[in-house]
Write a structure and sequence with these properties.
99 residues, mainly alpha, 4 helices, elongated
Length: 99
């Protein structure tokens, strides 16, 4: 028996393994996107509570939040969440509240 036959190159098993791997990575990507949307939503809810009247103007400014958010990009979501948390802290400091 040749090695190629034994590892499934000729009998099509590699196709199923490739499909299984692809399905796994798609599932992982979906989980990452869902996690990032939840984290972003939590930070946005905190911003809305901290600044009920002014949060929307700050959010709509493209310097603060870009018009297109890539949900699969952890670094981008981390940066945006930190930016919102910083805004919350600034708002609390300006209002004289203690965090």
């Amino acid at each position: 028996m040749s090695r190629r036959y034994a590892v499934g190159v000729l009998n099509g098993n590699w196709k199923q393994r490739w499909k299984d791997d692809l399905d796994y990575w798609r599932d992982q990507q979906v989980r990452i996107i869902e996690k990032n949307k939840v984290r972003f939503g939590d930070a946005l809810d905190d911003l809305k509570r901290a600044n009920p009247q002014g949060w929307e103007g700050w959010y709509d400014d493209d310097d603060n939040i870009p018009p297109i958010i890539k949900w699969s990009d952890d670094h981008m979501i981390n940066t945006l969440c930190k930016r919102m948390r910083t805004r919350i802290k600034e708002r609390a400091i300006n209002a004289g509240e203690i965090l």
